[in-house]
Each structure stands twice: as C-alpha cells, then as structure tokens.
Amino acid sequence: MPQKILIIGNSDGIGAAITRALVAQGDLVVGISRSPSPLGPNGPRHVVQNVAAADYPEIMRRIIVEEGPFDTCIYCAAIGSELKLPDLSQEAHVIEVNFTAMVHTLATLTPGWLEQGRGHFIGLSSLADDFYNADAPSYTASKAGFSNYLISMALKLKTQGVQVTNIRFGFVDTKLPKASWKPLMMTPDQAANHVIRCLQSKPMQLSVPKLAGLVIHSIRWMQSLRVWTS
Ligand SMILES: NC(=O)c1ccc[n+]([C@@H]2O[C@H](COP(=O)([O-])OP(=O)(O)OC[C@H]3O[C@@H](n4cnc5c(N)ncnc54)[C@H](OP(=O)(O)O)[C@@H]3O)[C@@H](O)[C@H]2O)c1
C-alpha cells in the first residue's frame, strides 16, 4: 500500500536520496525546499518555499488541505554556518531553519494526526546534538534543541497513536558537513535507507553510526569536565 509522504528539504543531499528511493518504491511524495525538485518537472509535486519565511505555516496548511492527510512527514531541511567573529548575523537564521521551522511543521500536522489517531513524524537530527562546537554553535545548539524537542514530543504523542522518530546521523557525504576529517562517513543513499527502515519500525530514536555516537559522547564528557573546572 503506497504511503503519502511530505518531505521538507528534499532538493539535495539526504532528502533528495529519500525522495528518489520512495518514488522508486511507489510512494506518493510531496516535497518542499527553496530549489526545485531533485526529480525535475516530471517528478512528484514540489513546492518551492523557504521554511524560515513568515508564510511557511500557512503554505503548509494549504498543502495539507490539497494533498493530505499525509501518513508521514520527514523533516530534512537544515543549514550550517561557520562562526567567524565578529559576524553573528546568521546565528538566529540557522536556529530558525533547523529548529523553529521543524516545530512549526510538527504543530501544523499534529492536530489532523490526533483526529485520525495516527501519523508519523521523522526528524533528521545529528550526533552533534551531544557536543559543544565553538566553530558552529548555532548548528549544534539547533540540533540539541531539535533532538530534545522531538523525544519529548514522541513521549507526549505516543499514547495518541502519533509516532515521532528522531534520527541522529554522523557524517553523510553531502554539501553540509564542512569538517576537514569526516570519519565513518555514509553515502546519502545509505542514510536514506536508514530513514526508510524507520517508516516501518518507527523507533523513538536512531543513532548511526553507533561508534561515532560513542566517540562524540566521550568527547562531550571531556568538554563538560573542562566547563565544570573552568
Ligand atoms: N550531511 C551530514 O553529515 C549530516 C550529519 C548529521 C545530520 N545531518 C542532517 O541531515 C539533514 C539533511 O542534511 P543534508 O546533509 O542532506 O544537507 P543538504 O545536502 O545541505 O540538504 C539540505 C536540504 O535542506 C533544504 N533547505 C535548506 N534551507 C532551507 C530553507 N530555508 N527552506 C527550505 N528548505 C531548505 C535544502 O534545499 P534548498 O537549499 O533548495 O532550500 C536541501 O534540500 C539535516 O537536518 C542535517 O542536519 C546531516
């Protein structure tokens, strides 16, 4: 039975890989991003929209009326910004795209899902949610908020039949990660396969690769020690 899936941030990277895989298996996809669809004009419906724009929640509501109800929404939109002092002009924008717009997205979908007693929201977070990063504080803070919010919402909505999945990836080979060393890096197709498996298993959280999660968690402990003793 084909599913109807809304993918936010699917013109490139992991979102584009998920879109290609879901369309190939016969699911009905609607995408949103600032650039056109990765599958061109003959692909599934694609709405060109900035998720940080003031009219985004209204555009979302319109899409749900026209195309919904959606079985699942996958939130992939994100930007990164290296902090180069004294310019802090992009910091709030990163939080808006990566975190606030995700909260608007879930808030727009949830009332309909509660009425139906079913629905599934998948958010792409990062293993960086467990890390202090002086070079990209807005990105890591946005992902810390993202993961914390989605797990809290998973606990809140679970009893109402609505599932929420927080996926924490390590490095994936897209234009987003800027680090010079990217250990255990996955391809976008490998990352997409993890997301697609979650459509069935609907876990509250998935962290991949596990080893990278462990290493980052250990670094975070050393960072915390430095903060406590400073
Ligand atoms: N790549 C990694 O190493 C990695 C690791 C951990 C987690 N993740 C997470 O995985 C998700 C996907 O990342 P990715 O690597 O695939 O990044 P990507 O290749 O840069 O793709 C990001 C997507 O988000 C869209 N987007 C960005 N700003 C937007 C806006 N204001 N409005 C609407 N769409 C917007 C982009 O489309 P437009 O530019 O056309 O708008 C693009 O389709 C992100 O949440 C990221 O944090 C990635």
What does this entry look like structurally?
With 230 residues, this protein is α/β, with parallel strands linked by helices. The protein has a single domain (4-228), classed as 3-Layer(aba) Sandwich (Rossmann fold). It has helices at residues 13-24, 56-67, 91-116, 137-157, 188-201, 210-228; strands at residues 4-8, 28-33, 46-48, 72-75, 119-126, 162-169, 205-208. A 7-stranded parallel sheet has the order 3-2-1-4-5-6-7, sandwiched between helices. Strand 4 (72-75), helix 3 and strand 5 form a beta-alpha-beta unit. The mean pLDDT is 96. The chain binds NADP nicotinamide-adenine-dinucleotide phosphate (NAP). NADP nicotinamide-adenine-dinucleotide phosphate is lined by residues 9-15, 33-35, 50-52, 76-79, 97, 124, 126, 169, 171-172, 174-177. The site of NADP nicotinamide-adenine-dinucleotide phosphate has 27 residues, from helix 1 and strand 5.
